[in-house]
Amino acid sequence: MLVHLQGPWTPLLGRLTLQQIPYQNPILLGTFIFVAILGVIILVATTRYGKWGYVWREWLTTVDHKKIGIMYCLVGLVMLFRGFIDALMIRTQQAIAVGPKSPGFLGAVHGYLTPFHVGQIFTAHGLIMIVFAATPLLVGIMNIIVPLQIGARDMAYPYLNALGLWLTTAGAALVMLSLFIGNFAHGGWYGFVPYFELPYSPGVGVDYWLWAFQLSVLGTTLGSINLIATIVKMRAPGMTWMRMPIFTWASLSANLIALTSFPVLMVALALLGMDRYLGTHFYTAGMGGNLMLYNDLFWVWGHPEVYFLILPAFGMMSEIIPTFSEKTLFGYATMVIASFAIGGVSWGVWLHHFFTMAAAPSVNSFYSVSTMLVGIPTGVKVFNWIFTMYRGRVRYELPMMWALLALFLLLVGGMTGMMNAFASSDYMWHNGVFVVAHFHMMVLLIAASVFGAVEYWFPKVFGFKLEQKWGKWFFWFMVLGTGWVFVPMFILGIAGMTRRLDYIPYTQWAPYLHVMLVGMAFYVVAVGFFVAHLYVSLRDREKNRVGADAWGTTRNLEWMTHSPVPAYNFAFIPHVNARDEWAWRKEHGLAELHAGDYEDIHMPKNTGVPLFLGIFSMGLAFALVWRIWWLALLCLALIVALIIIRSFDRDTDTTIPAQEVDRVERAARDEVTENGPASDLLGDPVVATSSIRSESGGMGGKSSAAQPAWAPMDR
């Protein structure tokens, strides 16, 4: 039975009234005007240049893993910018609202944001950065690169891949919509129970948070199934387990974490939704429920999810560092083992979030030890990266600079994490900004790895390098901003400053808060340089065109195909002969294959069903937020109908004719030849056979026979 709510409700609009639109707030009104103008510009430009058909065919209905990955990254980039604006508002509020004599603006007693508004910003910032910025960026890069690294033409389930994208986008859109209709939750990004229960939070903010979170969780879970199936079942012939690139291994480990942890969060959120909508009492103390049940379920997801984010970042570093050290990765087998060791230990650490809840010393000791154990496989990775660089020809190009920054942030974040692993010390700074600074080191590690990966793989996806000068300015101002913001935050954390403060009572903290504001100014300048970096790169793209091997010293299979990558990825499915297949081919003069004749290639057909499922899912979530029951039933019926209709569709594949494949391949080779020096990276043309040595069958996949045996190469 649905819970009866106090306040106005109508059958047509539910709880939605004009009073729920915050047009009297100048900040939100200005944001709405900016977004509206930007939206109008995009719509007018798309119409003016007649691009609606192109956008529909090539993007909105695509099931191409590369384009889906690009759209994931765009969603993550937009939400990263939104999360940064939230962070900027938090830091400026705290720098102004220090001491009883601090001024007040825009209706606030101190600073320019009311406590209610600050609570919303804190909550939105945390949720956005973890779930709608970092996760889509990482999933997007995995979508693009993993099929290329294993020699596949697409994901195992292209339709499911598109559905995961649009569900995630629907969740992000719901968060953005809460800016202009109603409000967002204001009790912390992970949902304090019982504060998020209906009696304490009767507004729609928690409902926005709940359904946006749930949509994202569902989308990520579908994506994890897809990536695992792709890695397990779609590896090219000859790609044994111990020949897979480290980024693919890291993606497999991360998605195993996702597949087993995100459903736990779905259950936690579903039980909270039942409490709010159906009047159950799963988390209500005194009514048969247990408020700690939510905290346990949430952090059983929450801490493994940290490693779901970090492991792909480690994988990116493991691809960049060997390329720009011009060496093979040191300790391949130990890197694989370390990735799965981190994933395994991640399940035994969640209770360190509750060190102050007066658990028995034996319980705290177990989770202290398990938390510290994570440092062992992480340390193995750090030493392997250092040994990879040792005596290598290290080139300090932008991807390598980002990887080195990520390595430094890992050391800082790891050491401060070990400090938090002790229950005794955690009592001192629990819920303080020292912990905030620690996990921002880890999140910024992820950001640095993502920026490095974008610089590294961008020419493979788009066919031209990003410009270097503005990119280096962006890098150095990010370094300055990180130091100026988080070193003072560590100091304030040790001094006892707690988090989520809208007013700072101690004036002696003001200098540190002002230094942090200077750091935020550096970040703002960095954002400007990032925009310039993209603009100049797009403007000068023709002179920055590259061949297949954009960096000259890459090692893995994705660099074998053309830049940009054709829709079918590989004209022939490659046969893998060694761990670093691309480096092996260059060494043996097999850098480019000119086959005798091409064959028709079967690829998945585009479909608009995932897009409409995402739209209707967002409509369902919006209707549930405002309790517009007729709209909720309509959207649910449309979702079920679309799924049933899709199940009857057998025309889900298309064929790229051999003539078209030949045309694309010839055009790509001609373009590389015109580029001059880039063509030297490809080697001499050879026939589609290669010298494949007999294998020992061991874990390392090393050759044991001196005499080669001829075998077919790529078919």
TrEMBL record:
It is a multi-pass membrane protein. Keywords: Cell membrane, Copper, Electron transport, Heme, Iron, Membrane, Metal-binding, Respiratory chain, Transmembrane, Transmembrane helix, Transport. PROSITE patterns: COX1, COX1_CUB. The keyword Transmembrane helix applies. GO terms for molecular function: cytochrome bo3 ubiquinol oxidase activity; cytochrome-c oxidase activity; heme binding; metal ion binding. The keyword Cell membrane applies. Gene3D superfamilies: Cytochrome c oxidase-like, subunit I domain. The chain crosses the membrane at residues 27-47, 68-85, 122-146, 158-181, 208-232, 252-274, 297-317, 329-350, 370-390, 402-423, 435-458, 470-492, 512-536, 607-624, 630-648. GO terms for cellular component: plasma membrane. GO terms for biological process: aerobic respiration; electron transport coupled proton transport; respiratory electron transport chain. Residues 667-686, 691-715 are annotated as: Disordered. Residues 50-577 form the Cytochrome oxidase subunit I profile domain. It is found in: Cell membrane. PANTHER family: CYTOCHROME BO(3) UBIQUINOL OXIDASE SUBUNIT 1, CYTOCHROME C OXIDASE SUBUNIT 1. Belongs to the heme-copper respiratory oxidase family. This is Cytochrome O ubiquinol oxidase subunit I. It comes from Acidithiobacillus caldus (strain SM-1).
